[in-house]
Amino acid sequence: MLTYNKKDNEPVLCREFPNDTEARIAQAALENAGIESILDNDIFSRIYPIGFNSLGAIRLMVKGRDLQRALDIISSLNFEGE
What we know:
By secondary structure, this protein is an alpha+beta fold. About 35% of the residues lie in helices and about 20% in strands.
């Protein structure tokens, strides 16, 4: 019997990115794989481009059920600094 787990549909942090370009590339790769995602802190980072920290990082959020698949896809993109 399948059970419903509310956490499966809750947004969770997948990864933080230092810039808009990497975040959008990762989001496009996830979208191509059928994984819904949102970018959090996107507007603030454009206004205050202060780099990779708690104020300026762009957070890529996915549903809990998609987290591991999303991490695998992003890992395959081989961004610098990984």
